[in-house]
Protein: Peptide ABC transporter substrate-binding protein
Amino acid sequence: MSPTSSMQCAASLGAGLLLSVLSVSMSASSSAMAAQSTSSTSPASPASQDEQILRIANGAEPGSLDPQQTSGTWETRIVRDLFEPLIAYSADGELIPGLAERWESSADGRIWTFHLRAGLEWSDGTPLTAEDAVFALRRLLTPATAAHNATLYYPIVNARAVNTGALPPDQLGVAAPDAQTLTITLSHPSATLAQTLAMSEAAPLPRHVIMANGADWTRPANMVTSGAFVLKEWAPQSHITLTPNARYHGAQNVTLDEVVYLPIEESHAALNRFRADEVEIAYGVPASHYAWIQDNLAEALHTYPILGEYFYVFNLREGSPVADRRIRRALNLATRREVITERILGMGQIPSWHFVPEALSEHQGARFDFADWSMDRRMAKARELMADAGYGPDHPLELTLRYNTLEDHKKIAVALGAMWKPLGVHVTLTNTEAAVHYRDLALGDFEVGRYGMIATIADAYDFLNAFSSDNTSNAPGLSSPTYDALIEAAAREGDDDARRQQLHDAEQYLLDHDVVLPLYDYVTSSLVTPAISGWAPNALDVHPSRYLHIDTSH
Structure:
C-alpha cells in the first residue's frame, strides 16, 4: 500500500496511500540527499527537436530511492523505472514477465519456481542472478530494513519470524538452486503472491554494490540498476534525472533519452508548468481549476477511477481525545461526504460509506450502519454521543487536525472543522510537507490525521492489512485480536468465497469501531501532453516510462 503525495491526492481530489503511512527515515533521507550530485542544467529547458526528454511533475521530494525504503507514489514511480521485479507491469497495468521469463507453482500452491531470463546484467555489467533475488527478499524481511509492506510477504515460510527478529534472514523460505532459478516456499497458498512480487520493493537488488557501499549505495555515483533506466543525477528539491540503461533486457524498445522527475508538490504550480510546456506529464490537477482544464486542456486530461481511498485516521492510543469511541462515531456521523465530493472537489469522487474502494468490484463491501440515515437523524445522534462523552457547545472539545500541505487538503480540513463545530468541536489545523506528515502519523504524533491510500496490489487485503497490530502502516495504533484474526485468516484462506467474507468482516470491523473516517474513493486526474504515446489509464495508476514515446513533430 502506498501513501499519496500532496499532488497525487489533489488529483483524486489522493495511498491514495500512500500510503497509507510513509516509512521515511529522515536522517537517512537527509544524508542521501546531501550526497546527491547537483546540476547546472535546467530540468525545465525545452528539448531539441529530435530529443526524447520526458519531464514529469511528480509531487513530493523522494525520501529515498532504495526500493525497500520507499512507499509513496511519488517515490515508486521513480524506483519502478530503475529496478525491475521478477514480475512486471504492462503499459495498461497487467502483470507480465519481468526479470523472470516464466514461473510456475506446485499443485498445492506452496512452491513457486521462477526462471530468470538468460544473460541478465546489472547496469555495471555484473551478472544478475537468482542470488540477487534471494538477497533482496531476505533484506526486505530483515527487521532493520523496516520495509513498509513487509507483512504482505508473510505467506513465505518463516517470513514473520524473520521480520520480527525471531529467526535469521537465511531461514526465509527462498533459495537459488542455480543462477537462473529462484524458488519461494510458502507456508500456505497465497492469492496475492504474484502481485506482491511485482512491487518494486521485491525486485532483485545489487548485493555487490550494497555490500560495498552500505547506505550510500543509492548515490548516483554508486547505484547500479536492473530496470530500463539508470540514475544520472539527483539535485534535491530540483530534479532527478534518469537515462537509459544499455544493459536492460528490453533496451531496444526504450525510446526516451531522459526522464526528469520534478518535485512539484503544489498542483497549481504543476498546472502552470504544464501550460508553459515545461513538463509533459503532471500527476495531479487542482480541483479549483478542473472545469477550466476540462474546457481548455481536454485532449491532455485523463480522469478515471483508481484503487485508492481518501480518509482520516483517528489516534486510538491512550491519552488521545479520540480514543473515546463515542467521539469518533460522532465525527463520522457529522461528516457530510457529498458536500466534499460535489461542492468542494467536483471531479467525480465517490463518497465513501465504506473503506475499501468500490472499484474492487469482487470485494463484498461493508457499510456504515448510518449510511442511509437522514442528516437530521445523524446530527441528533452525534450530539447525543458527544454529550455522553462530556462535550458540547458549552464545553467544547479541542481537537488538532493534521494534513500534508496542499490547498485542496486545507479546503477539506476547513470543511470538516465547520461540519463538526455544531457538536462543540473546536478544530486547530496543522500542516506539514508529506514526508514529515506521514512520519509523525507513523509515530502516533497526532489526534486526527489526513491519509490517502493507493493500492499496490488489486486486492482488498492490501487496504485492510494496513491496520493489523504488527503492520508499520497502522497509524491509528489499532490493537485488536479480533481484527488480527480476520486478516490472518484471509491471508491463509484458499477458498475464494470464504476469503471474501473474512475481508468483508474486517472492513466492517473498521467501520463499526470508527477506526477511520473515510471521505471518498479516488479518481485520478493527470495531464499528459497529446504528443506522448504509450501512457494508458489503469486502476493501479502504473505508467512505466519504458513504454512512453514523444512525437517530436507535435
In short: The longest helix spans residues 496-512. The chain has 17 helices and 20 strands.
